[in-house]
Amino acid sequence: SGRAQNTDVRTPLLVVAGEAWSEVTTGQWVSATGRLDPADLGDSVAGYVRPSGAPSVVAGPGRLGAAAEYVRDRLRQACVGLPPDAAGLLPGLVVGDTSRLPTDLEEAMRTTGLTHLTAVSGANITIVAGAVLYVLTLAGVRRLIRIALAGAAVLAFIVVCGPEPSVLRAGVMGCVGLIAVASARPSAGLPPLCLAVVLLVLVDPWLSRAAGFALSVCATTGLLLLARPLAAALGVVLPRWAALAVAVPLAAQVAVSPVSVLLSPTIPLLAVPANVLVAPAIAPVTVLGAVAALTAAVSVGLGHLPVWVAGWGLRWVALVARVGGEIPGGTLPWPSGLLGMVAVGVASAALVIAVLAVPRLLRRGREPSFATRWRWLWAGAGVVVVVLVVLLGSTVTNWMRGWPAAGWVAVACDVGQGTAVAVRSSPEGVILLDAGPDPEAIDACLRRLGVERIDVLVLSHFHSDHVEGVPGVLRGRTVAAALVTPVEQPAGEARDTLRALEAAGVPVVRATTGTGGVLPMAEYRILEPSRTAAARLQSAGEGSGEGSVANDASLLTWIRAGEVTIMSLGDAETAAQQRLLRSLAADDSVGSVDVVVVAHHGSATQERDLYDTLSPRVALVTVGADNDYGHPAPSTLQMLDRLSAVALRTDLCGDAAVLDTDPGDGVRLETRCRSG
């Protein structure tokens, strides 16, 4: 609606919503009101909608969609009575429904490389179709009818899971897997795989940019090309069943590693052993889960028996994930970007070559003794360790000393008396909140973190302790965009900073309330100043040397990175903090936050009601040691203590990292505090 006209459009939009939308199901028609933000060039959607409340259901999902939701709901009901881990895992393993998966278990599965189990993949469909074919073969059903019924089972499975792109990909990849399994040649599945990739990309060109699609194709390729040769090689030193159990996850892992390291610069060291341990339970649990879904659709009581039997296998999967998640060093930090991709590719190739060379190194026609088998196992392990150490270099050293922390979400850099906070926003990039006063200090911090790209540089205002580090940020890095306050005060610092950004070819946006965007791993929004407030402050600051004008023109930035919410208050003084408090009262989409970057380095000028509203669990105080301003003020520290917020001071802790959220313990932190 606009200018007294209504226009019907069919435009893809992504709704970025919270709990109020948790009950929306696939296929429903809903009506909602919200703020519309443009998408970046190259996104698969035209824009993003941030709704202001719960949606109104206009129409149901239709008969087919309603039937699918009915089956999913009955399966969830049949899981009632199982332990929470098992009750959350079964719908995830069978139909990709992770709505009831405990958050701590989900994190443990991520650490141990088991998250693929709860994402519908070709393996799920292969298991279901294979079970149907097996039963029909035992029953003596004719071949053409068996294939037709197996195809019908796959279509029904896709409908129940929901016609999401990932499920459609899994359907095609599952069919490819069936073709490969039915073939006697190791590479027989490659032509169908190539055909499937071409067809899928033609139907949905955006898949060419989808990480999930790349991972799916790589994993399938690895299984087709490497699983059988690796199993044959490992069979020289292991029993056949054990060799196959190791070869399958190993083939998939080495194939996906060059892609996965671009998404998260870590190597899950426990992925292969964890997948080997859970492998015996996956197929029976998946089949039992499918049976439970069918029987529960008739009667929830009938579904209890297969669910109860499957529960024992689910307990084992959860146990492996939780124990593995507690093992120190379960994930290995790895270089990010192109270097990391090449390094892991070389390491993976070296590992595969070492394994495949085992039969040639042993004398043909002679069965190796038990002692010989173990010697080769230890030798292979030694080769892998040497390759990793050589390739990782300084990264291994950093990991051993515990910094930087793997999987960090935000890091407050120690740049002296100034502010610079990096928030992870993409596999290679960050949102950088200010640049500090020293180019060398911010450059060193970003190098410690392995940051090669700045997705968004947010310069809250033009005081030197926030912008003079910009040359260090630009040193050897790509800066996609810079957001600056529209109030160009102090004029000299503003002029120099804008010239430096222009010379580097960085697009500059004068940001006000509502400016924001969505990145692969984060979303951000400028909450203050509004255009009206910015115009008033610019007018008040012209010809004036007062620092409060520039401070109150600070960009106040809200960020959600993963499960962590962050509010950066720049150098906002009382007037700006009061404006933010009023806007928060009118917009309940922000609410409390996990982390607040304390205003003006912890000065005494703080609006207590604002901090009460934000109710942060962690307060980052970016301040220089032995500064002349008395920062942070004792009154500010007392206020944070009253809120039970953990205050991390860069003058005492150096760089301070926020890792992620833990449902039981709150936000996880890592620092190198010297005292306090």
Overview of this structure, please?
- The protein has 676 residues and is α/β, with parallel strands linked by helices.
- It is built from 25 helices and 23 strands.
- Strands 8, 9, 10, 11, 12, 13, 14, 22 and 23 form a nine-stranded mixed β-sheet that branches.
- A hairpin with a 3-residue loop joins strand 22 (656-662) and strand 23 (666-671).
- Helix 6 (165-182) packs antiparallel against helix 7 (190-203), helix 6 runs parallel beside helix 8 and helix 9 (240-263) crosses helix 10 (271-298).
- It is globular, with a radius of gyration of 28 Å.
- Mean pLDDT is 80; it is low at 387-402.
User: What is the rounded Rg?
Assistant: 28 Å
Oligomer: single chain
* Number of beta strands: 23
Give me the number of helical elements. Answer: 25
Overall form: globular
Mind summarizing the main beta sheet?
9 strands, mixed
